Amino acid sequence: MAIRNFWSMAAAAVGFRLVLVLFGGDLHLASRPEVSTPLTSIRRLAEGYWLKQASMSPYSGSMYHGSPLLLLVLGPLTNKRSVGHHDHIYCSLIFVAVDFIAAMLIRATGRRLQIARNRNLKSLELTEAVSNSVNVSAGDIASLIYLWNPWAIVTCVGSCTSPIENLMVVIMIYGACSRLAPLAAFGYVMATHLSLYPAILIVPIILLLGYGPDAPPTKVFRIKSSSASKTDVSDNDKSSSSRDVQQFLWKPVFHFILWMLFWTFYVLLLSSIVLNKVGGLQEMFEKTYGFILTVKDLSPNIGVLWYFFAEVFDFFRSFFLIVFNMNIVFMVLPLAIRLKHRPCFLAFIYTAIVAILKSYPSVGDSALYLGLLGLFANELAEMQFTFFLFFGYIGVSLLSPVMHNLWIWRGTGNANFYFATGLAYTCLQTVLVVESVSSMIKHDRKLRLLVTA
Amino acid sequence: MAAAPPALRRLLLFSLLLLASVAAAAEGEEEEEFTEELLLRPLPDRKALAHFHFRSSAPPSAAAGRHHHVFPKAIAQLVQQFHISELELSFTQGRWNYEQWGGYDPMSTNYAKPPGVELWAAFDLPLDEIDATWKNLTHTLSGLFCASINFLESSTAFSAPRWGFKLNEDNLRYGALPREAVCTENLTPWLKLLPCRDKAGIASLLYRPSIYKGYYHSQKLKLTSSQSFGIIIDQTLTVVLQPDNFRGQQLHSTDGQLQPSWSMKDLFNRKLSGKCRVSKSSRVFLEIEKDIVDKSGTEVSWTNELFVLSTAPDRVLKELNNMDAQSSSLYEYDVSNYNNDKPLDVGITWKLPLIWSCTPAPYHANRFLMGSGNERGSIALSFRSTNLHKQLFGNSNDCSIKAVVFQVVPWYVKVYYHSLQIFIDGNSKAISELVDKIHVTPSEDKHLPGTLEMLLRLPCSMESATLSLDFDKGFLHIDEYPPDANQGFDIPSALVTFPEFNSSRSYPETDTLSVSRLLQTFKEDGVVKSYTEVLLVPLTTPDFSMPYNVITFTCTVLALYFGSLLNALRRRIGEEERELKKAATKRGLIPLLIAKLRGKKVDPPPQGSSPTSLLSTKLLLKVVFVVVVAVSFHYLSNS
Fold first, then answer.
1. Do A423 and B554 touch (CB under 8 A)?
2. Which end of chain A, N or C, is more open, meaning fewer C-beta atoms within 10 Å of its C-beta?
3. Is there a single domain that holds both residue A355 and residue A442?
4. Contact A338 B569 (CB under 8 A)
5. Alpha carbon distance B102, B528 (integer Å)
6. Which residues of B touch A441 (CB under 8 A)?
7. Helices (H), A339-414
8. Shortest Cα distance, chain B CAs vs residue A136, angstroms
9. Do A297 and B569 touch (CB under 8 A)?
10. Which of residues 186-225 of A touch B (CB under 8 A)?
11. Do A261 and A286 have their domain in common?
12. CATH number at residue B498
C-alpha cells in the first residue's frame, strides 16, 4: 500500500525548503541553540575557513570543531555572498539537496525492509494475519516524515552541517541493508569522522551485513519449522530455506572491515592533506573528538549536559564526564543481545540514544531518528503513549524557544526555565526509546504466539 | 611641619651630604640621580592638568647586592630578579578626553592611559622562560603596589602582541585589568619609591582629597634597564582637576566665557615650600598651548593682555617647531629658589574670555557595542577624521593615513574574525582595500584571550570609518563568574596608533648640566596613540543557587532512561504470566526465599528432599565463595 501522492509531497517539501532558503530572508536560524551546536554551526565553519585562508590552523582558537573535509567542501561557499539573501545561501542550497538524497535513501531502505518483511511473513505463513491489520509502505512514510519534519526543515534552512552527518548515517544503513559493503563502510567512516558517536553503529551494521535486514526472531522460525515438520514432513525445503535466511554470512562483514580500513586511511590522508602546513591530525583529534568528549563548550542547547557541567563542582567534573560518556556505551550490548534479529531497528534505537545523550544535541539529530522511526510503522503500530509523545514533542519545541527568549533576550526568565524544557525533552525521548523497544519486543512475541497458535 | 630643631636638621643634612660626596667619590662620576618636576597646563574646558614627573636613575652595577642611596631598592631587586628590560605599569581612574584635552601632544600619547591597570613588560630572557617570569612579576608587583595585578597571572589575561602594540621579538607581554579601582592604597606604595616620599618637594603637593577629586587620574611607573645606562624609573602622576574657586570679579554674569583662574593653592590646597633635598633638580613648568600663544600675539611674556601669571618665571622656553612659527611656550620655575618663608604658588589669572582648542589626533577613535540580548553582538570601532592631515600636509585628497589597531578580547567574547566589515563614510568596502596587514591570535576557551593587530590604511578624504566584528557571548562555569556577575564583563581598551604622526616636542637646551628630564621625555619618540573606551559586556548567568538541584534532576532523568530501558529489555512477559500463576499456588517459605536469592529463576516446586539439599549445597558454596573473596580482599587491602 504505497502512498499515492508521494512524489508530489516530496517535491512540495523540497519546494518549501527552497522557498524558505531563497525568499525567507535571514531567519537567524544559524545561531539558534536548538539548531546549531558548536560542532555543526556554519558560522564557526566560516571562521575556521577564514583562519585556514589566513594560513593558520582552522583549529587554532576554540571556534571550529568540525572535520577538515567539510572545510574543503563548504568553506569556499561561505565566502560567497549574494545580495538580498542571507549569508550562507549556497550552503543552504547544498543542504536541501543533501536532505533530499537522505530522504530517498531512507525510502530505498524502507523498500528493502518491506521486501524482507513480506518474505519472512510469507515463510511464516502469517501474511494474512499480520498484513491485514497494518501494511503501509514504511519507506514512503519514513522519507516523508524526514522531508516534512519541521526540525529537519529548520536544520536545513539554518544551514548547519548536521544534514550531512545525517546523510552519512543513512548511507551507512542503506549500504548495510542492501549489503553494499563499500557504501556501508564509507557511510560508517564518514559519520564517525564527522561526529564520533555513530561509531557504536558498527554493531547493527555488522549484524545487517551478516544476517540481512530485520526479521522475526530465530526462535519463531524454529518453532515454525518444528511444527511444520511435525505436521507436514514433505514440506521440508521451505523450513530449511527459512533457516538459511538467518545464517550469518562472514564474507560481507569481512569486506566491510576491509573497506572500513581503506576509507579510514583515505579520510585521514585527505584530512592531513587539507591540514598540511597549518596543523596536524593530532590537533584535529584533540579539537574534534576531544571537544566532543570533554564538553568544553557550555552554551545552551536542547540537551541537559550543558547546564549540568556549568553547575557541577569542578572536582566531580571528570567523574561525570566518564559516567555520561559510558552511559551511551553501556546500552549497546544489552540492546544488541535482545534485538539482534532486527539490526535496522537496533540502528534506529542507537541513533535515538545518541541523540539523547550526546554532548551537543540538536534537533537535527532528532530529525534523523524520527525519520528512521517511520521505517517501523508496521511493527510499531501498537506503540503506547503515541498521543502523549506527539504533543509532548510539539509542546517542547514551542516552549523551548519561548524560554530561551525569556532568558537570553528579555532577561525576565532565568536559565532554569530553559533547562526545564531540556529535561522534559530528554524525558520524552527516553519514553519514545523505551516504548518503541518494548513494543517491538511485544510485536515479536505476538508473531510467536501467532505461529504457535 | 618638621619638629626637629633647625640645628639638628642642618647637622643631619650636612652629614648626609658628606656621605653622598664620599659615595660619589668612590663610585666615580656615575651616581644615582633623582629629579622632580611638575607641569601645569590650563585645559580648554575650564580644567587644569597637573603632571608630576619623578625620575630616579641608578648606574649599572656589576654586584648584585648594591647599596642604594636614593634609588628604591625594591625596584632594583625587581629588575635583577626578573631580567626586565622595560616595564610600564599604570593605574588609571577616569578617561582621557581626547577631544577636549588634546590627542597630539606628548601628554596624551604617553600619559593618557586606559582605565584600570595596564601592565606591559619586556624581558631579557630566553623565550620559554618569559611566561613563567611574567607570572612571578605580576605577583611581585601586586604585593608592591597593593593592587590585584596578580589577576594578570592567568594565561587568559595577558597576551604577546607582535607589532600592534610595540615592535618586539616575542619577549613582550601585555595585560590589562579594566575594572581595577585605583585609590590611595596604590598611591602610598608608589610614593614610597620616592626618596622624600610626600614629605618634601613637589610630591608634597599630593594632597589626597584634591587629587582624587579630579576627572582623570593616572599614576604610572616606567622602568627601563640596560647594561649601558643602568636602571631608570620614571614615576609620573597625571591628574586633570577642576579649579573650584571663583575669585571675586570673575564671577560676573556678563563674562561667563572667562576661564577660571587658578593657582597651586586652589588645585592642591598646598603651596610649594622648597624642593626635596636629594633631588638634583626640582622644577615647575606652566605650559601655554600653541593656540593661546597664537592669540596673544608674538610677545610671550608672563603678563600680557590675555593672562597674567602669579609669579614671574625664572625662564621662558619656546618649543622648537619646524612647521609652525608659533608654538607652545613653557614658563619655568626653579623650586630651589623658594622656601618655607617664601613658598611658590604658580597660578594663572585670565583677563579676557578666551576659547582655544588643543591639537587633536588625526582621528578620534571610539568603540562601542552593537546588538541586544545575551547571545551575540558586535564590537564597532569608529574613526572620525579631525582633518589634522590637512593642516599638516596640505589639502591633497589621494593620500592615505596609516592606523594600527591593537585589541585584546577576553575568551568569553568569541569574536568571528571572518565577519570583519569596514565602512567608509557609510559605504561597505572590501577588506583588502584598507587592511594592509592583519595578525590574529584567536581566543581559546579558558586558556587564551583573542588578540587582533591590524594595520589600516585610511584614505585622507574620508570623514568617518567604522569597523565591526561580530561575536558570540560565551557561557561560563558558575565558579568563573565574579561575585557581581550581573554587572557584566569588561573588554579592555583598544589601542589605536598613528605611526606617521609624531607628537614629540623639543625645547632649546639652555643648560647642558641640568637638563630637564621631563622635557627630555617629551623629546623622545612619541608616536600618536589613543586608547578607546572600555566596553562593558553583560553575560548571561546561570542560576547560582542551583548546583544540587541540577545534579539531582539530571541524574534522575538519566537514571530513568537507564532503568526503564533496561527494564524493558529484561522483561519477559510470558515468564511473568507463568510466575503469576505460580504465585497463586501457595508455597513454602524456604523455597520462596531460595527462589528470591536465585534471582527469581523459576523452577518446578520441590517434590523431594534431594533437589532442596542440592540447592542448599549450591547456596552454601556461593556463601563460602563470597566469604573467601571478602576475606582475601580485606587481607590484601590491609597488607
1. yes
2. C
3. no
4. yes
5. 11
6. 568-569, 571
7. 343-357, 363-373, 386-404
8. 27
9. no
10. none
11. yes
12. 2.60.40.1170
Which of A337, A354, A381 terminates a domain? The answer is A381
Residue of B539, B553, B555 best to disrupt the A interface, most CBs of A under 10 A: B553
Q: Which of A327, A350, A381 is the C-terminal boundary of a domain?
A: A381
Any domain includes A306? no
* Structural domain boundaries enclosing B493: 363-503
Q: For residue A133, give the nearest of A354, A307, A380, A303 by alpha carbon.
A: A380
User: Is A430's Cβ below 8 Å from some Cβ in B?
Assistant: yes
Establish whether this prediction's ipTM goes over 0.85.
Answer: yes
Domain that holds residue A15: 6-294+316-381
Q: Which residue has the cell 552554551?
A: A299
Are both A428 and A439 inside the same structural domain?
yes
Contact B505, B318 (CB under 8 A): no
The Cα–Cα gap between A270 and A274 comes to 6
Give the mutation candidate from B558, B572, B575, B577 for the A interface (greatest A CB count, under 10 A).
Answer: B558
Total length of chain B: 639
Number of domains in chain B: 1
* Nearest residue, CB atoms, A311 vs list B550, B557, B564: B550
Residues in chain B closer than 8 A to A417 (CB atoms)? none
Instruction: At B55, list the grid cell.
Output: 625620575
Which A residues 46-65 touch B at CB under 8 Å? 46-47, 49-51, 54, 56, 60-63
B469 contacts: CB under 8 Å, gap ≥ 6: B378, B379, B380, B415, B416, B417, B419, B420, B421, B452
Tell whether B325 is covered by a domain. no
Indicate whether A80 and A22 sit together in one domain.
Answer: yes
Contact (CB<8Å) A43/B566: no
Query: Over its length of 453 residues, how does chain A's per-residue pLDDT go in tens digits?
Result: 567 788 999 999 999 999 998 887 777 788 888 888 999 998 899 999 999 988 889 998 889 999 999 988 888 888 776 666 667 788 888 999 999 999 999 999 999 998 888 888 888 877 776 665 566 788 899 999 999 999 999 999 888 899 999 999 999 999 999 989 999 999 999 999 999 999 999 999 999 998 888 888 888 888 888 877 766 554 444 444 444 456 788 899 999 999 999 999 999 999 999 888 887 889 999 999 999 999 989 999 999 999 999 999 989 999 999 999 999 999 899 999 999 889 999 999 999 999 999 999 999 999 999 999 999 988 888 888 999 999 999 999 999 999 999 999 888 888 899 999 999 999 999 999 999 999 999 888 888 888 887
Asked if A308 has any chain B CB less than 8 Å from its own CB, the reply is yes
Q: Do B416 and A46 touch (CB under 8 A)?
A: yes
Q: Is A303 inside a domain boundary?
A: no
Number of separate domains in chain A: 2
> Alpha carbon of B216 to those of B49, B53, B148, B363: distances in Å?
9, 16, 21, 21
Pairing mode of beta strands B347-350, B400-409: unpaired
φ/ψ bin of A360: left (φ > 0), alpha (ψ from -120 to 50), beta (otherwise):
beta
Whether residues A372 and A413 share a domain: the answer is no
> B621 or B387: which carries more pLDDT confidence?
B621
Q: Is the domain of A91 the same as that of A40?
A: yes
User: Is residue A177 domain-resident?
Assistant: yes
The DSSP element (H or E) to which B167 belongs, if any, is none
In a domain, B368, yes or no: yes
Report if residue B378 sits inside a domain: yes
Candidates A56, A304, A311; nearest CB to B542:
A311
A409 at interface of B, judged by CB pairs closer than 8 A: yes
**Chain B residue with minimum CA distance to A448:** B574
A63 inside domain: yes
| Chain A residues touching B571 at Cβ < 8 A | 438, 441
Q: Does some domain include residue B103?
A: no
